[in-house]
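Budget justification, computational time. The allocation requested in the original proposal was used primarily to generate C-alpha cells for proteins on the priority list. As evidence of use, we reproduce two of the resulting records. The first is shown immediately below.
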Amino acid sequence: MALREHEFEAETEIIVHEGQEVCEGQLLAKALGRNAVNVHAPVPGIIRKQLSVQSTNGFVSRAIVISLVGKFNLAGYPAENKFWRTLNRNEILYILQDRGIIRTATGQALHRLVADHQQAASLLVNVLDMEVFSGFEASILNQYTAEVVKACAMLLQASTMTEVIFAVNAQAGDCRRLHAEAQANKLPYRIEYFSPRYPHFFPNQVAEALTGHKSGLSALFVEPSTLVATYQAINSNIPYLNQFVFLGGNALKQPSLLKVRLGTPIGKLIEECGGFVGTPDTIAVNNPLVNGYIEDLDMPVTKTTRALWLLTRPETRQSQQEVCMRCGNCIKACPERLNPYFMNTFIMAGQASLVTAQLERCSGCAACSYVCSSRIPLSVHFKQQQKAGATHEN
C-alpha cells in the first residue's frame, strides 16, 4: 500500500508496526502536511513490512505490505446511512480529510480543494476523460449516477457554490438518468456538451469553451470517480479503499473497467482481464501520451491509478527520431497556441530561460509529440525543463 500519490505530496506518519493486525479501513498513516492525505488499510490482515516502491506515477514512495488475514468488516455489509443533510461545512470537510478522499485526477486532498475554492461559483463535474478513448469517467457516471448527484449536493452544502455543471462528451449517449436524479435531489445543475477532442479535459480548455476565456470560469473541478468516494465517505463513513481502473490495449485479452482494492498489484488486474494476448511493447499508466511506463507488474494500484494500457508496437508508433522537417504540425496541434518548434530549439540550445513563459503555459498534453513527423519527444523535453525549473526555484 503506497503512502503518497504524487511526487510533491507531504510525508505521512506511519502509526502501525510490523506484526500488528489491522482491520479493513483502519488508519495506517496519518497526514502531516497540507498536501498529504490519510492512508487506510484496504484489507484486513497483518503488517508484514515497510519498504520503498516505485509508484505508477514514476517516483519512489514509502509503502506498507499487508498479508490478507481475517474478516472484512466493511465490504458486503449494509452501508451506514448518515443524515448528511444535517452536517455543517466543517463536519463535511473533516470527514473528507479523515477518510483520505482525494481528487483522483490530480491526487490533491479534496477537503483542501473545497476549502481553497470557497469563492468559487460552480462545481464542475468533469466527465471528459484524461485517458484517451477509455470512457472511464462516463462509465462511472452511468453506473453510479445517484451517488454522484448526492455527492454534488454534499459539496455544495460544504461551500458557497451555487450550481453544478456537468461537462459531458457529446457522444457519451443519453443523459436522462442524470437529469432524473438531479431533479429528484433538487440539484441546481446544467449539462454542457463537448465535442470529442483531445485534450478537452484540461480546466483551462473547459473554461475557454464555456466562457471564451481560459480563466473565465470560477469553479472547482472534480470527477465522477472522486464523487463516488466522496459519497461513500460522507454517507457511509467508508475511507478511500477502492479504485476504478480501466484496462485496455491490443495486448490485453479483455478490456475492462474494474473496481479494485488499493494496493492490488498491477499484474493481478491483468490476470483478471484474461492476461496477455501477445507481448506488449509498452504498459502505460493513465494517459499513454503523457504519463510514464511501467516494467514491474508488482507495482500497487494507488488512488491516482486510473487506467492501464497494454500497447502493441503498432499502437506505440515507435520509430527512429529524425531531424525536424519544420512541417508546423506541432504548432497546429498545440491547444495553448504555443510554438513547440521554437521552444524546443531554445531548450536544445541551452537557452530555456528565453521560453520560460511558454513553458509555464504548456499543459503537458503531448499533442505536439504525437503529431511530430520526425518523432521528436517535444513534450518530454518540455516536462524535463519544467521540472528542472521547479527544482531550481525550490
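The second record produced under the same allocation is shown here.
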Amino acid sequence: MKAKMLLFTIFCSVFLLLLSPFQENMYTFAMSSAKEDIADLQDRLSSLGFSPGNQTGVLTEETKQAIVQFQKSNELPSSGSVSEQTKRELHMATLTKEDVQMMAKIVYGEARGESLKGQVAVAAVIINRLQADGFPNTIEDIIFQKNAFTAISDGQYQLTPDEEAYEAVYYAIRGWDPTGRALYYYNPDIATSQWIFTRNTITRIGQHVFAQ
C-alpha cells in the first residue's frame, strides 16, 4: 500500500512538473489576448473622439470613463464594462485612424475658414455617402471617387489638417449632421458643374449649399 502511495505521489509530481510550462504558456496567452483586446478597445474609442488615455493595453480608470461616455452617447447601459452589446455598437461605429485622417484632410482642404458647424457639415456629407446607396462602401473610396472632392484635384488634400478639422470629423462620426442628410455640397459662387445646380437644396451653411 505504501509502495502504491509512493508511486502515485511520484506520478503526480512528475505530471505537475510537466504541466507547469503548459500552464504558464496558457496564462501568458490569455494575458496577451486580453491585452490585445484592451488595446483594440482603446484604439476604437480614440478613433471616435473619446479619450481612453495611453493606448497601452492596460484597462485604466481613464479607459473605463471613455467606455461610459461611449455608452451614454449610444444610449447603452453606462456600466463602464464592455458587454457584448457595447462591443457590437463600438465595432459598428468605429472607423480607422486612416479613415479619420482622410476625412480631416478633406474637411481642411474644402472647408477651412468655415465655422465649426460648416466643417462638421462637410464631414457629415462623407458619412451620409457611406450610408447611402449609389456610393462606394469605404471612406477611402468615397473620398477618391472621381471628381467627388475639389481638394483631391487641386492638391489641397495634401495640406496638414488642424485640430478643428479633426474635431469636426469626430462630431460627424458621433452623429451631428447639420445638413439634414445631404449627399452633396458646393460653393455656388465658384461651382462650374451645371449638374450640381439641379440637386434639391436642403440648407446653406457658410459658403456651401448642401443638397440631395
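A brief technical remark on that second record: The domain at 97-211 is CATH 1.10.10.2520 (Arc Repressor Mutant, subunit A).
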